[in-house]
């Protein structure tokens, strides 16, 4: 559906994008994640040629669009919709008229407009807000109107530019559920850019991680979690892993004692197994769980444990680490506890 081949883009001699190669499948929800300045927005703007690449090819629906002009470019853009971080609604128009506006511009027949707008307002849960104005709506409702407007002209692709970053967590979750519903209902291809890992975990089939204008990795979260060197996996666990509170760090030392503190990262089937309990009995070692966090995305469960092994010598510590490796659990040594953790 969407293919970017050897894309490069610079502004005033400063490289914004380098060696970008991505293939996005039809009906896929594809996430692009990275910190501010990574090049996410520039990449998104290339997909509808709001920015043109300096080099490389952009292919959409088997059509080379990177050199498209005038009529051909308009035809391509009619297949692509955009949902912004800010809603950009026309304050003087009703909800119905805001959604209908793109169809009016493209001269759809009134009967088609009416049917499509009513259908979309029902899909986004605003069927009782036809005559309301934007000032009467909450932030989440405004974004629902913006999403309905983006879908009005039957696009094949929807680009979402930080579509949830201006919303509170609860509203964000409802908007993500709506995007997932729309993807399943209409089969549209969605490209989301975000700096929020929870957004990616919630709905994306695959994700690209960007740093300094380059794609560092493209993978599904499920696959990335099985790859120890995956930068997506590292970002995922960094989001999931709680920071050690001060009362724990105050008790840590690099000087070895018989109370090593470890961070365990696990995913998949092992998350449903009583690994800590079984290993404690097998090795005859007491294990103190200090911190824990667990999450589930798509069909994969993933979690973090911070533990303390009590009266554990080096040989026993090596045995414990081997048990972790055998169960595909990543182990990180945090140090040694100098005083009992209360």
Determine the CATH topology of the largest domain: Rossmann fold
Considering the protein shown, what is the CATH homologous superfamily of the largest domain?
P-loop containing nucleotide triphosphate hydrolases
Q: Please write the string of helix (H) and strand (E) elements.
A: EEEHEEHEHHHEHEHEEHHHEEHEEHE
Placed side by side, the strands forming the largest sheet appear as 6-7-8-3-9-10
- E-strand count: 15
Gross CATH architecture of the largest domain? 3-Layer(aba) Sandwich
**Briefly, what CATH class of the largest domain?**
Alpha Beta
Mean pLDDT comes to 90
- Which parts are unreliable, with pLDDT below 50 for 5 consecutive residues or more? none
Question: What's the Cα radius of gyration?
Answer: 25 Å
Keywords:
five-stranded antiparallel beta sheet; 30% strand; single chain; Alpha-Beta Plaits; six-stranded mixed beta sheet; Rossmann fold; alpha/beta; 342 residues
Brief summary:
The chain has 342 residues and is an alpha/beta fold. It is built from twelve helices and 15 strands. A hairpin with a 2-residue loop joins strand 4 and strand 5 (63-64).
How would you describe the overall organization of this protein?
- It is a single chain.
- This protein is an alpha/beta fold and 342 residues long.
- It has 12 helices and 15 strands.
- Strand 13 (286-297) and strand 14 form a beta hairpin.
- Helix 3 (95-105) crosses helix 4 (110-123) and helix 5 packs parallel to helix 6 (169-186).
- It is elongated, with a radius of gyration of 25 Å.
